[in-house]
C-alpha cells in the first residue's frame, strides 16, 4: 500500500483513574491476559495505516509502560505526560516531525 505521509498514533495514558479506587490507574488493570493499555495500543500496532506510536504515561509509570510495550515494534517512545491532558498531548506532538497524527485515549 502506498502512503504519502507518515501516520503517528499518540496514545494518552497518563490519567490517575482515581474514581476506580484501584491500586493502579485503570489503564494498567487487566482484562483477561492483557492490560487495558495493551488492548488500546494493539490495534494501532497491527494496522498497516500506522507508522509509529507514542505512548504518554504518568511519570511514575513510564517504566511500566515501556515493559508493557517492549514487544510492540511501532511504539517508538514512551514519555511522561503533563499536568493536564492537553499538556500530555503537546509533549507527544513535540516528537512528531511530519505527517498525520491521531490521538487516542489509553
Explained architecture:
With 106 residues, the chain is α/β, with parallel strands linked by helices. Helices cover 25% and strands 27% of the residues. A four-stranded parallel sheet has the order 5-4-1-6, sandwiched between helices. Helix 2 links the parallel strand 4 and strand 5.
**How many helical stretches?**
3
Largest sheet: 4 strands, parallel
Shape: globular
Distance between the termini: 27 Å
Give a count of the beta strands, DSSP E runs of length 2 or more: 6
Strand adjacency order, main sheet:
5-4-1-6
Question: Cα-atom Rg, whole angstroms?
Answer: 14 Å
Helix content: 25-40%
Low-confidence stretches: none
Class inferred from helices and paired strands: alpha/beta
